[in-house]
Amino acid sequence: MDHHRYKNRDHNSPCSVLAWIPYWDQNRGFNSYLENKEKINYIAFFWYTLDKNGDFKQYTLAKTDRKLIRKAQENGTKVLAIVTNLPDDKAEGEDVDDWDYKRLEPILFSEEKRKSHINTLVSLAKDVGFDGINIDYEALPEGYREGFTLFIKELAEALHKENKILAVAIHPKTSEHNPMENNGSWGQDWKALAKYADQLHFMTYGEHYPDSPPGPIASPKWVNAVLKYADAQNIPDGKIFVGIPFYGEIWLHKKMYRYHGIDVDLTFSDIQKLKRKYNGKEGWDEKHLSPYLLFKDDKQKKYSVWFENEKSIEAKINLSNNLGLCNFAIWRIGGESPDFWSLFSVE
Fold first, then answer.
1. Count of CB atoms within 10 A of residue 67's CB?
2. How many CB atoms are closer than 10 A to CB 178?
3. Can you tell me whether residue 240 is helix, strand or coil?
4. 330 is in which domain, residue-wise?
5. 302 pairs with which residues across the strands?
6. Does some domain include residue 293?
7. Whole-model pTM above 0.90?
8. Where are the beta strands (DSSP E) in 109-162?
9. Is there a domain that residue 336 lies in?
10. Residue of 198, 270, 340, 345 with fewest CB within 10 Å of its CB?
11. 115-151 b/e with 16+ CB inside 10 Å = b?
12. Per-residue model confidence as pLDDT tens digits over 98-156
């Protein structure tokens, strides 16, 4: 894709980096922010979700820490509140569904419930002092598409009246109605969402995941295809934040080319510990520009880990820059290599 195809590029707009901080690793995440604050324009705290009835709630193990918010803002960093539809397993049990779209049904199909939810989010931003809201409602089916657009439109209008930012997490796709991309992307109308949201956080990672065979987290070729589709939808590039993964995935290798993905949050630090503990062999996939790790545990079970390193992240940053894109959203900070930060520059 040629650089000049990005006709919406505002060459005077500054480049920005956003970093997500999860409540389950908050101390390490916030310390990473403090160590690299000159490279980070926005942080977003993963503190809030919806209950089974679609009502707003705080995660059981999360805490709304105003001191952290103020400390970041004193550094000139804007702070967003992430609100998700990922169930609170500590309160509901671990057998609840992952990313439960049904929790959005009351909000997206009831005007009264939608307006109430919007009022709750605006009040959250105002009362706690967030600079904005980061909507991360995932796995929505196609039937929720229009309702989600209307919700984002009305939420944006309400937040903008209070000078607050609206960011929306965007599922990756390279076309419409591709069965291989029925990951929640069918429930999102990119072109419509771009009219209302200030930031679109493209989750350009998860190319391979626990339920898929082993493979790269975000190969540049795949990332390019997603960004090419964003270009075709005429998404203003100033609103595009290219997702950069700082995490890895692990698979257990079984017989007859069968695999079992393990749903675990692996940081770069975690992966290096596995490498040292089991004398793992690290490799580089030149086709996908991605690193991997192979090892056997104490029971001689074979595992593979696909992850990101300085070289693979740099490839995605360079790809984005060549397309005229320079905003990035990092999932997630805490446990990454300090060397990663040398790749980012903000204006």
1. 7
2. 12
3. strand
4. 3-246+309-343
5. 296
6. no
7. yes
8. 132-136
9. yes
10. 345
11. ebbbeebbebbeeeebbbbbbbbbbbeeebbebbbeb
12. 999 999 999 999 999 999 999 999 999 999 999 999 999 999 999 999 999 999 999 99
